Amino acid sequence: MQIDLSGRTALVTGSTQGIGLAIATALARAGARVVVNGRGTQRVADAVRTVRAGSGSEDVTGAAGDLATEQGAAEVLEAVPALDILVNNLGIFGSAAPLEIDDAEWRRYFEVNVLSAVRLIRAYLPGMKERGWGRILDLASDSAVVIPAEMIHYGMTKTSLLAIGRGFAKDAAGTGVTVNSVIAGPTRTGGVEAFVRELVGDELSWDEAQRAFMVKYRPQSLIQRLIEPEEIANMVVYLASPLASATTGGALRVDGGYVDSILP
Questions:
Q1: Among residues 64, 114, 166, 248, which one has the fewest Cβ atoms lying within 10 Å of its Cβ?
Q2: Do residues 240 and 10 lie in contact, with contact meaning Cβ atoms separated by under 8 Å?
């Protein structure tokens, strides 16, 4: 299966590391003009170089801006006024005792993980509809469906993204624009490695720590390992392509079989 995204412009939010960086690299490798996003100009510049090196494409630029704020979103929109592919990957996560999460933390998670995506969809979807083609992808999580007790505030935001994706897909009905959510399972990134250490400690080797984490905290996983970021990126590239033209309003799983349900 050959995926060619030549001539398409893609913005991947929160793409200076982890899953976002892998998605940006995979899209560039498929021929898209890719815009890397992060809050800091230096980290964005470093990520642009990484994507170029990893993809073999020089058609990679950066747009710094904190998308959890109106000002940061405006800065990115000024730098990138039109898009063909929007990947809302920006997100924060962490564990917390449920009854100790205060109002400010609930708002912070909502603003970063949810409202940032809504702002960009609201800004870019009209142009996609006018041009008759577009792809919007929201990076959700298995935590949207299987809410972890230690991450209720995070799970809430990912459930919200599923609702947003379905709703905006209906708004784009019949226009040639598709809107989907990708349910990513436990994935090996720098942030997740730190999260694993937070829960199981630093005494074990990484392989032992990963195994202990999966057995205790994610025992439903059918692959019994953390997913590699590139495996998430593969699904995103497919959904961003013309080959996925009949897939919209969906929540597609790349979760290693973690969610113990047929749908979704």
A1: 166
A2: yes
**Packing angle between helix 18-29 and helix 229-239, nearest 10 degrees?**
50
Alpha helices in 80-200 (DSSP H): 103-110, 116-131, 152-171, 190-200
d(CA 85, CA 134): 6
Dihedral sign (CA 31, 250, 18, 222):
negative
Phi/psi for 186 (5° steps) reads -60, 115
**DSSP string covering 179-195:** EEEEEE-SB--HHHHHH
Overall size of the chain counted in residues: 264
Tell me 205's DSSP state.
-
The dihedrals phi and psi of 139, each to the nearest 5 degrees, come to -85, 105
pLDDT digits (tens, 9 = 90+) for 46-81: 999 999 999 999 999 999 999 999 999 999 999 999
Whether 154 sits among the annotated catalytic residues: the reply is: yes
CA-CA distance, 10 to 37, in Å (whole number)?
Answer: 11
Residue in 109, 124, 154, 258 annotated catalytic: 154
Q: What is the DSSP string of 54-78?
A: HHS-S-EEEEE--TTSHHHHHHHHH
- Give me the DSSP letters along 207-254: HHHHHHHHHHH-TT-SS-SPBPHHHHHHHHHHHTSGGGTT--S-EEEE
Tokens of 257: 């079989």
d(CA 172, CA 203): 51
In sequence order, the 6+-apart residues with CB closer than 8 A to the CB of 135 are 84, 85, 86, 177, 178, 239, 240, 241, 244
pLDDT tens for 176-230 read 999 999 999 999 988 889 989 999 999 999 999 998 999 998 899 999 889 999 9
